[in-house]
Amino acid sequence: MNDNAITLLEAVNLALARAMADDPDVVLLGEDIGTNGGVFRATAGLQERFGERRVIDTPLAETMIAGLSVGMATQGMRPVAEIQFMGFIFPAFEHLVAHAARMRARTRGRLSCPMVLRAPFGGGIHAPEHHSESTEALLAHIPGLRVVIPSSPARAYGLLLAAIRCDDPVIFLEPKRIYRASKTLIEDNGQALPLDTCFTLREGSDITLISWGAMISETLDAADRLAAEGVSCEVIDVATLNPIDHATLVASVSKTGRCVIIHEAPRHGGMGAEIAATLGEQARAALLAPPYRVTGHDTLMPYYRNEQLYLPDTDDIVTAVKATMEYVE
Amino acid sequence: MKYFKLPDLGEGLPEAEIVEWHVREGDTVEVDQILVAVETAKAIVEVPSPQAGVISHLFGAAGDTIHTGEPLVEFAGNEDADSGTVVGQLSRAESTDSQRESFIIGAAPSSKQAVGQRTTAAVRSLAQRLDVSLDTLHGSGPEGRVTVEDVEHAASLDQSVGAPEALKGVRKQMARTMAQAHAEVVPVTLCEDADIDHWPEGSDITLRLIQAIGAACEAVPELNVWFDGHQLARRHHQKIDLGVAVDTEQGLFVPVLRDIGNRPSADLRAGLDRLRTDVRARSIPPAEMQGATITLSNFGTLAGRYASPVVVPPQVAIVGAGVIRRQPIAVDNDVQVHKVMPLSLTFDHRAATGGEAARFMQALIQSLSA
Amino acid sequence: MHEISYRGEIRLTRYLDESGAPLGDMPDWACGEQPWVHYYQQMVLARQFDTKAISLQRTGQLGTYASLLGAEAIDVVCASRMQTEDVLVPYYRNHAMQMIRGTPIARLLQYWGGDERGSSAPEMQHDLPNAVPIATQCLHACGVATALKLRQQHQAVLTVIGDGGTSKGDFMEALNVAGAWQLPVVFVINNNQWAISVPRSKQCIAPTLAQKALGAGIRGEQVDGNDAIALHDVVGQALERARAGKGPTLIEALSYRLSDHTTADDATRYRSADELKAAWARDPVARLRHWLHQQGHWDEAREQAWQAETKQLIEAAVADYLALPAQPVDDLYDHLYAECPPTLAVQREQARAKQARHEQGGSGHE
């Protein structure tokens, strides 16, 4: 048990090591994860520690990686597969949607699919095209697929452990922009955080800010700025995008009456729409203003020169909060 | 860094020949210290060290060809602070004082409270705008929730009639107690007069009332019980603890005079005075107002003849004494004017019978008439 | 009782040995000055460009860049053997091919500099842009070839893929349909032995990648990818066959990745310095130079002159690239559809306002 100040990426590594030490059925597979320790070093040192049998460098084939994981999982193993970037997850879709999501249901529980698929996602690292995708809504829309997104080292550690121990498939999306952005003290105690639950990062009374992933960083910055101006923001990290813990969001909005939902992914059909619609249904009487969304544009994520125009920033969030606070029916 | 690779020498040629090493494996070098001389097609170039460190390996010997990007020198110890990515740049944490994270799993406590609340943020906001106090509002919505209509109605009432005053303290307690009594008790009131014309001048009226109740309880102990309406059971008391209603500016207090059946008059009088003083001084402890087995309400100092005073559970009877007055009464066949004390007795018919009540009243009258 | 239903073979073509000396009697067509001097010059130019691009990345003027060091012969010969009307469907390491087919160097830099206009040069004609999702370009190449065939055009499509990419389904599906439909496509595998950190030996157990063609029923062969003369022969013939309607070819060019996977990768983590040094001994540029020197078609003086000329060319292109104006944010909206839907008007305004705010430096964003 050691207490380190570690980054989100190192927390992923710590959780993987922990899960592998605790359960011999946990096996990692992916491209460049063994010798190279992963292109972001998420699996650094694991092949040395656990051997080539459990940390496998696969041939270059995402469909194969996903399909293999399904097969392994049906036989009781707990594969944790890495897709190198979310932009390359599309070949894996068939196995996630057509198989992983429904293995338990269509065998009425005789077989299940306890696999985890990890992928770095999101923009903001000045990368070439296809490496900045934020398409979590496509996956969260699928019944049977859990989508989990950490936003801090502690939540990365706790949620990844939970994902690996979960008996159903989990897509674990790691916001690469904040992989190394901050360090916090983590105790390697093997304690998982609950899935299907939001986390309240800051308690406030005037407005609820709802977000996930790397945008939590800007959201907290916005909350700080607004606090200095006398606006008390409650900040909630949704964390699991399917199923969503609407109860926590409804409770918060019942208290504050206003909310802004922030996500990097495009506006149209983004998960902000799901949350806004549900708040409209379940917290209608409490709302003093319509739920407002701050999102990426309904265009492609541009090449890196224009990346910062696309990504929502702290200014965008502050502006939206002020507009919401001033809204009068 | 662990490996120092041959940098681009700026001449567009990717290769160079090692002419001479200026360091050996095991040497400690400083930044900019010359490591090696290499020869390109154009010139001999001296290559400086990019960092301080210990050389653990030299790649190649004099005469070997080396290309841009190939490892030239290996430094001992520190693992590469590698870029840790295959595309792009990841910003690194600068702060070294890192702390434990703190966050709440699920909703904040203040949010959880908000869910069951009678009011929503929208209603609260409206109430604030209309200057309506939510504390006094009754919610007509589902589960007692305050609705917008409730707020608007209260606002218009406030405008025409004035803002409501929320009850506090003793008045609030009285409202609650009386409502509960009304809900549970089945009250019957019996009225009668006591002829007290023969009482000596300066008689202690209250004391005589207390003694009369003591005698009546002895005669009819069935009216000195506690009744449990749910269990349908009675508790009989050996002693008589008399609740004495005291009217003050703050409201109605009912302190308890203990064991009135066994105490001499002077003691009873002193006790009563003490209770009255303590009540008025608001120094009476709560214990002194609990446990009455029967109650006396003497409104005779004010106004009123008969009344139907309220029996407060678990008691089953209460005696009311009205204003003593001179009135014509029949003595044999003559009409005389005598001093008369009107008496009322309310009893809970769940626990006592009319006969018991009547006999109780009879004993009261007998004691007072003596 | 058993009989052999099918027996296949994979031919390997080489003309020069590792040092650049002839492996046997050289055919006459290999001994003249051209196109070999031209090839050499283009390979040197390609390498100059590559070195410069890496340098630009190191100084923050270019984004992550995928080096072509070691692949110069493959790129130059394949592009040179293609006709203008043929269609190139590259992966992400074929900058020299694009250059030779007419794309201005500044445009190449523009792409790696994070600007979509890099893929819009009219000189690219019908060529597809760089393909990042691995092996997807092979199916696109088949699509292009299908269009050509349906229109009865006698052109060929050439597509390139790495050794890692041959493990993907897209590649296998492409070979299959190319064979089933006899498409005019030439698949070139740049087998540079590495897929980021995964060596060729872990990618596939087959002794050659070329024999995946046999599974699809198409012609497959190997060539020394660092031997410009061999490439000229093999690629040229494959393109001619395709244009003549004689079907697709899979060519496995054996080569070596002398660089890191990208400028953000560090190959010292996973491969030995000895292996890299040994690979340099088979450098395609050095080998062709050696042959040309031997034949008397090249010398030091011409080398110096050419170095100077290429240096100027590249410097000029870099200057062009650095001087390119920023892309207006409207481009995000104007090129998403043929016509931008009016429903996006609000977002466009927000994007414009944000660009203005950033230009005033008011965002606190770096």
UniProtKB/TrEMBL annotation, chain C:
GO terms for biological process: branched-chain amino acid catabolic process. Residues 41-319 form the Dehydrogenase E1 component domain. Its EC number is 1.2.4.1. SUPFAM superfamilies: Thiamin diphosphate-binding fold (THDP-binding). It catalyses: N(6)-[(R)-lipoyl]-L-lysyl-[protein] + pyruvate + H(+) = N(6)-[(R)-S(8)-acetyldihydrolipoyl]-L-lysyl-[protein] + CO2. It is an enzyme of class 1 (oxidoreductase). The keyword Coiled coil does not apply. One of its GO terms (molecular function) is pyruvate dehydrogenase (acetyl-transferring) activity. The keyword Flavoprotein does not apply. Pfam families: E1_dh (PF00676). Its cofactor is thiamine diphosphate. Keywords: Oxidoreductase, Pyruvate, Thiamine pyrophosphate. Signal peptide: none annotated. PANTHER family: 2-OXOISOVALERATE DEHYDROGENASE SUBUNIT ALPHA, MITOCHONDRIAL (PTHR43380:SF1). Heterodimer of an alpha and a beta chain. NCBIfam families: PDH_E1_alph_x. The pyruvate dehydrogenase complex catalyzes the overall conversion of pyruvate to acetyl-CoA and CO(2). It contains multiple copies of three enzymatic components: pyruvate dehydrogenase (E1), dihydrolipoamide acetyltransferase (E2) and lipoamide dehydrogenase (E3). This is Pyruvate dehydrogenase E1 component subunit alpha.
